[in-house]
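Entry for 2'-deoxycytidine-5'-triphosphate complex. Fields follow.
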Amino acid sequence: VAVEGNIGSGKTSLLKHFETCEQAKVYKEPTDRWRNIQGHNALALMYEDPERWSLTFQTYVQLTMLQTHLAKQEQAVKLMERSIHSAKYCFVENLHKGGVMPELEYIVLTRWFDHIIQNEDCSPDLIVYLQTNPEVLHERIRKRCRKEESGIPMDYLQDLHNLHEDWLIHQTHFSVPCPVLVLDANLELQDMLNVCDQHREKILCGHG
Ligand code: DCP
């Protein structure tokens, strides 16, 4: 099961909530690995100079996502934060559309992505989409003060939001690998977790 949603939508909180559940093994996004590749902070470099570092960063994200998709299933349910699909269909697409990632870099990354998903089993059984309003996220990101994210503008969140919606709700652009369960993630944390609990069985059975 992959948990998807814009930056600051509450994916980590949802995963933490399910961490104590015996039947599920939780895979949080490896942001620490992105922030320290033998001493290099690829996430920070990507935000500081996206033209120079987006390809490097997204190539590494693609690798770490693949590793999580392929990690041996130890419990009945594997619950992962994001997927190789949102990395490509939302983030890489956004960088390319925004003119930050040149055509050739985009093509090379796309060839890698196509090769991976044709040859490896990267399809979840269910996507839990934490749907949010970008204005709410902007405020949350400001409050949480992650230093790499201090300069994220509203437009960036809006563009990422549109790409998530096109992919998972309108299903106009890219293939959706499985059913999608949409949850309202504009709610305050505890209310959102209560909603998750109402859908607990669906989430843990991997059915939308
Ligand atoms: N990121 C990116 N490209 C990707 C994946 C993530 O640029 N393919 C960036 C966006 C954020 C940071 O990495 O600055 C972490 O993003 P996420 O939305 O995946 O994770 P959050 O911790 O923001 O999620 P949440 O607040 O929902 O728990």
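NOTE: The chain is about 55% helix and 10% strand.
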